[in-house]
Amino acid sequence: MLCRGLIAVLVSALLSSCTIMQYNLHNQLSGAAALRNGCPESYAVTLQSALYTNTFGVNPSDTKRLDEEKAGYARAIREILLSRGCTASYVAMDGALDIRIKHMAYVSALPQEWLTGLSLGLIPSWGTRPPEYEYTFENHVSGFSRTYTVDVTTYNHLILFPLLWVNLLLPMEKDRFKTALVNFLEHS
Fold this sequence. Notes:
Blueprint: H1 2-16, E1 19-26, E2 42-53, E3 57-60, H2 63-83, E4 89-90, E5 97-106, H3 111-118, E6 125-139, E7 144-156, H4 166-169, H5 173-187
Parallel strand pairs: 2-4, 2-5
Antiparallel strand pairs: 1-7, 2-3, 5-6, 6-7
Helix pairs in contact: 2-5
């Protein structure tokens, strides 16, 4: 009995881990970077996060997880600003640089993923979830603002299990956030 339960857990872990994810950043600014110093005196982070399912609609994230995510974004912002020689300080609200992050996790399976699941991973599927992340940067000193979006593309198939390590090499969501922030700072 215990052996069957262990086998069921291992099989479900194997089948659920046959996914490769790719984060795609949109709306980057191109052209020559601005010549002025893009160092804000202070920055504020606002995070809105929720899980979205087809069945139950939108469920807001719990406060503890939001605080942990917000602290992670604040560390990433500080790291980017320090690498640019900026000594901006974090403020709770109304910074010279306001950053609003919206994360709407779409946790329901896409229609093509149902077929992959029902065939126990034998039928491949791939799909793009529309903007799961939206970053809005607003520089109050220059009056410049920009919104960036991040789509998530997933590839699902049983044969991808040996290639699962590829996820470690692909840029993750925080890397896309840092790219968007640098792009914004260079052009604001």
